[in-house]
Amino acid sequence: MTDLATPHRDSTRPDLSADRLKRRYRAETRFRIYGIAAIATALLMLAFLLGSITHKGVGAFIQTEISLTVSLDTAEIDPDGTRNRETLAKANYRKIIRNALRERFPDVSGRRNTRELTKIISSGADLTLRNHVIENPDQVGTEQTLWFKTSADIDQLNKGNTPRDVPEADRRVSDKQIAWFDSLNAARDIRSSFNTTFFTAGASSEPEQAGIWGAVVGTALTLVVTLILSFPIGVMSAVYLEEFAPKNRWTDLIEVNINNLAAVPSIVFGLLGLAVFLNFFGLPRSAPLVGGLVLALMTLPTVIIAARAAMSSVPPSIREAALGVGASPLQTVTHHVLPLAMPGILTGTIIGMARALGETAPLLMIGMVAFIVDIPRGFTDAATVLPVQVYLWADASERAFEERTSAAIMVLLAFLILMNLAAVILRRRFERRW
How far from the centroid of its chain's Cα atoms is residue 232's Cα? Predict the structure, then answer.
């Protein structure tokens, strides 16, 4: 009788199960290699991106300066001898600097050559001299050797970004200006210093006078409004939906809409802010108040989802124990659930704020793309934010603005990294594992 339980095995064929096992191992090895290759490629591309931004932006932190001996003539600056600040501020400092340049290069004559000579120094040099005289009124009537910023074109020449071996018509610096620069450099009247203006000044049409402080203040004011609105409203909404709301079709509809709002393109929120806050309510255009309102609407779904996830991770035994000792449902939530879920809530809020920090499209729709020179002093003053400042500088044609664009991106990335690092630290420090 044939034994059907024992399959016939040909001794000349290999073991099929062993072959399948080897194929599995080879497939797993290939999958690991593909994963490692993908991660390595992503890291290389990230390193290339950061390296490119750093290489282009590091020059913005260095500014070329020129040394000039200026004559602070009393008849020109303070004819009455009162040393009054208002009188000192009204003097013609541009003329004083122009005379100092002529004395430095006495062979330069003619209006055209004089205008070309004046262009080697920053157009804001007269403001620098005015501030120096106001701070040091006792120097009126003397000669002082001071350092002034050069123009952006001379700054780029000093940094090696302007080629000398191309025809004069193909570069922004003329042959005469190069000769004057070489003469000053040979006399050690040219130096490179840290560009504090980049961190202390507002926007400007002149690259050497442009800074990010106005955008930083505008960003801070906008994020304050966003946080004040999105955090309490988001947390309270999450508490109601997670702890008190009945489970029916209406709450299901609300939850679906919240999840959908988290995926809505940010420019839609900008259109909403334009239609509601500006056109309907008449709030001031390009103000941090309106920007914060728009970003709060955009951040709310993220805060609600993160808060609900954090509260749902709290074990039911905590609620049962609190209710068992006589606590009301509200006391259970406020005294036990929320404190235990707060690390996760804060983490989600910080991540939402980091997303708001990097947004540009919704703020463009409400007019925060305007050219703002003054530093904003309140929530209703005209202002801009760092991402929009990057957008504006990236659209400029001058080579010096390319440096400042990359430098502003570096500052923005630093803020984003710090905010995400704070979220990670908060989670690791306060998270409870059940």
Answer: 25
Neighbours of 108 (CB within 10 A): 15
Helices (H) and strands (E) in the chain, counts: 19, 3
Amino acid identity, residue 362?
A: P
Give the CA distances from residue 20 to residues 6, 15, 23, 24, in Å, rounded to whole numbers and listed in that order.
21, 9, 5, 6
pTM of the entire predicted model: 0.85
How far apart CA 163 and CA 185 sit, in angstroms, is 17
Who contacts 322 (Cβ-Cβ below 8 Å, separation ≥6)? Answer: 331, 332, 335, 336
Pick from 193, 197, 156, 191: which is nearest to 177 by CA? 156
Reported as a single tens digit per residue, the pLDDT across 287-333 is 999 999 999 999 999 999 999 999 998 999 999 999 999 899 999 99
Domain range summary for the chain, segments of one domain joined by +: 62-195, 213-430
Give every residue of the chain whose pLDDT is below 70, as ranges.
Answer: 1-15, 431-434
Per-residue confidence (pLDDT) for residue 434, from 0 to 100: 59
Q: Find out if CATH 1.10.3720.10 is the number for domain 213-430.
A: yes
DSSP string, 112-147: HHHHHHHTTB-TTHHHHHHHHHHH-GGGTTSEEEEE
Site of tokens 């004057």: 180
Burial of 7 (0-12, 13-18, 19+ CB in 10 A): exposed
